Amino acid sequence: MQEGYYDDDLDDDDPTWEEHAKKAVQRAWDSIYIDDIRGVLEIPNHDEPRHRPKECRTIDDLRSVLEDIYTDEWNNYVPFDSGESVFTDDAEGYIDAFLANKQEIDEFFSSLRVENTAEELYRSDEGIKPGESQTLRLDVELINNELIQRLAQRPELMRELDPRKFEELIADLLRDRGYDVTLTPKSKDGGRDILAIRRDDIGTALTLVECKRYSQSNHVGVDIIRGLYGVVSAERATRGLIATTSFFTRDAHAFRDRVPYRLSFADFDVLRAMLLQFRKH
């Protein structure tokens, strides 16, 4: 996380076990990775670095993970007597105090909440002409708000878009989330369809995006994941993102889990959420 989120120094009078517990929480906090494509905070497992990072989609998830880290580290060092710890930890109270006034975290999770209008959007037929309930006009020249509104109502229609229009859709969804976006030429794209750049005070991050407009049953396999990872490594990009109207195979997930900071997935469910959140940040 950004420097300055948590500035309290550890009390020199704290018992050793409490110092260890607080330092473990701070270490986890400092290594949090914000995946704003998938809408999660990832906390690496420092004790088992090969294990998949813990994912937090709500503030309660984050609180629970930090409480577990505090309690585990406390129990590693607190004295025990007849199998019972001599002192009782206050993980819940400490983590509540730790997270107090963390406005940036509240804003992050608030931005991910889908408004209550989502159910109405799925029921509404507004914007879909009679007789076109299963089809979408594909002659639009540009991805625009009207099209995105229609797709939010019926996200399965993404699968009927022209592949280039699907790439333009993904570009617009990323642009809405603060990325500077460039679409590559239709041919000879070098294994990536979109270049998505984000700049902040820390530096510049480049995400290479590959778009797969697939049918629901045609899942993205591990070969495609390996291919994008090779392009990301060759071009020394920050990470790669694969966006698909389908889902990913188990092997694809297993490969991504080995390099969680270099690859991200946006499957049908993620894209559906992004459509609903469009222009609501």
What does this structure look like?
The structure is a single chain. The chain is α+β, with helices and mostly antiparallel strands and 281 residues long. The protein folds into two domains: 16-112, no CATH class; 118-277, Trna Endonuclease, Chain: A, domain 1 (3-Layer(aba) Sandwich). Helices cover 41% and strands 15% of the residues. The strands form three sheets. The chain has a five-stranded mixed beta sheet, sandwiched between helices. It has a three-stranded antiparallel beta sheet with strand order 1-2-3. Helix 9 (250-258) links the parallel strand 9 (239-244) and strand 10 (263-266). Helix 1 runs antiparallel to helix 2 (59-77) and helix 6 packs across helix 10 (268-277). The relative contact order is 0.10. Residues 1-12 and 114-142 have low confidence and may be disordered.
SSE diagram, text form:
Blueprint lengths: L15 H15 L2 E3 L4 E4 L10 E3 L2 H19 L2 E2 L2 E2 L5 H9 L3 H10 L5 H6 L21 H9 L9 H14 L3 E4 L10 E6 L4 E9 L9 H13 L4 E6 L5 H9 L4 E4 L1 H10 L4
Parallel strand pairs: 8-9, 9-10
Antiparallel strand pairs: 1-2, 2-3, 4-5, 6-7, 7-8
Helix pairs in contact: 1-2, 2-3, 6-10, 8-9
